[in-house]
């Protein structure tokens, strides 16, 4: 995240890397917090779309498989559960990245 911010500054101000290095820590923290907030909002919207699509797919498959064996249904559910589990892991990893940048949970997005 800090690299993204730094590269954005370099694009704005040329190759003046010293600019970012000399910023006060509070400004860097504020910028990281703002970037984290924007990223979290966009990420949340994307995850919501994925989960909505997954739910629609589950509902469609349930209608098609009503007469079929439950073994087929549990396989599809297993894939859906894997997607949800991966999204949960991704959210935890994002939280860890924010924590490493000193963006804490108390900052509500």
Features:
mainly alpha, elongated, 109 residues, 0% strand
Kindly describe this structure.
It is a single chain. The chain has about 110 residues and is mainly α. Helix content is about 80%, strand content about 0%. The protein contains four helices and no strands. Helix 3 packs antiparallel against helix 4 (about 70-100).
Radius of gyration: 21 Å
Count of DSSP-assigned helices: 4
Mean pLDDT: 76
Which structural class fits the helix and strand makeup? mainly alpha
Task: Give the overall shape, derived from the CA principal axes.
Answer: elongated
User: pLDDT under 50 segments (min length 5)?
Assistant: none
Question: What order do the helices and strands follow?
Answer: HHHH
Estimated helix fraction: over 70%
Reported for the largest beta sheet, the result is: none
User: Can you count the beta strands?
Assistant: 0
Query: Whole-Å distance between the termini?
Result: 17 Å
Query: Beta-sheet strand percentage?
Result: under 5%
Secondary structure elements and their pairing?
Blueprint: H1 2-13, H2 17-21, H3 25-64, H4 70-100
Describe this structure in a few short sentences.
With about 110 residues, the protein is mostly helical. It has 4 helices and no strands.
């Amino acid at each position: 995240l800090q690299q993204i911010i730094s590269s954005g500054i370099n694009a704005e101000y040329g190759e003046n890397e010293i600019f970012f290095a000399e910023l006060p820590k509070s400004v860097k923290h504020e910028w990281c917090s703002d970037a984290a907030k924007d990223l979290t909002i966009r990420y949340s919207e994307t995850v919501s779309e994925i989960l909505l699509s997954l739910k629609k797919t589950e509902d469609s498959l349930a209608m098609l498989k009503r007469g079929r064996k439950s073994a087929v249904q549990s396989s599809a559910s297993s894939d859906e559960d894997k997607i949800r589990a991966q999204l949960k892991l991704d959210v935890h990893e994002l939280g860890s990245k924010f924590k490493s940048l000193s963006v804490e949970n108390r900052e509500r997005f």
